[in-house]
Each structure stands twice: as structure tokens, then as C-alpha cells.
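pls design
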């Protein structure tokens, strides 16, 4: 009979809530180092997007590939400015380029950037969400 009580106590302790609490505890310095590295990667990713022109470029590219000239016209910016922002996005590997003759076309290379643009659009651009 005492064994039955112990078994029921063990089942209660293994509930999903307790399991979640156990899984969220860090085991040691390695977990802290992993968390710090993940935080650095996330920060770098967000810094790359945290510029009005770069964010607008990603917004336009989220609908498909665009040439440099198309981006210049859409953004109403001069070519050197657009190229500088494209270079930063390429450096961060958020976009990729392909050449067709003299024209260079850009597209989003990182699915995380595309997902982030969907979230940003939903939060700031979608008329329904702006209240």
C-alpha cells in the first residue's frame, strides 16, 4: 500500500509543469556560454536590421527579388547609399546577390529575416493591427 502512495507521488512529480521547470534550469557554465553565444547572434541579427533603409530593403525583398535600380527607385535613395546598405546586409548574410549581365539582383537569403519581416509587417504596417 505504501508503494502505491509512493508511485502516485512520483507521477505527480513528473507532471509536465514540473518537467518544464526542470528542463529550463541551466546545468552549468556550458549552458550559460551557449546562452551568451545565442544572445550575441540574436543581437547581431537585430542590429543588422535596425536601420530604416536596411529594414525597408528587406521589406521590399520579402515580396521577391529586386535589382539595385529598382531598390533605388522604391527607396528614393541614391545608388551609393543603397549599395552601402546592401553591402551590410550581404555581410550579415541576410541577402544574396546574383548578376545577370550588368544588372545585380538581390533576394533574401536568411529565412529568419523573412520571418522577422512578416512579424514587423504585422505589428507596424498591417492596417488591421494598427488599431
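designed seq:
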Amino acid at each position: 500500500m505504501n508503494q502505491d502512495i509512493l508511485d502516485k507521488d512520483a507521477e505527480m512529480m513528473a507532471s509536465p509543469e514540473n518537467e518544464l521547470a526542470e528542463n529550463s534550469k541551466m546545468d552549468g557554465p556550458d549552458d550559460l556560454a551557449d546562452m551568451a553565444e545565442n544572445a550575441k547572434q540574436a543581437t547581431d541579427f537585430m542590429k543588422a536590421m535596425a536601420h530604416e533603409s536596411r529594414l525597408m530593403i528587406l521589406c521590399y525583398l520579402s515580396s521577391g527579388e529586386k535589382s539595385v535600380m529598382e531598390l533605388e527607385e522604391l527607396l528614393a535613395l541614391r545608388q551609393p547609399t543603397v549599395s552601402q546598405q546592401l553591402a551590410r546586409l550581404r555581410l550579415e548574410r541576410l541577402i544574396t546577390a546574383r548578376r545577370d549581365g550588368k544588372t545585380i539582383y538581390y533576394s533574401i537569403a536568411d529565412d529568419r529575416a523573412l520571418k522577422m519581416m512578416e512579424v514587423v509587417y504585422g505589428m507596424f504596417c498591417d492596417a488591421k493591427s494598427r488599431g
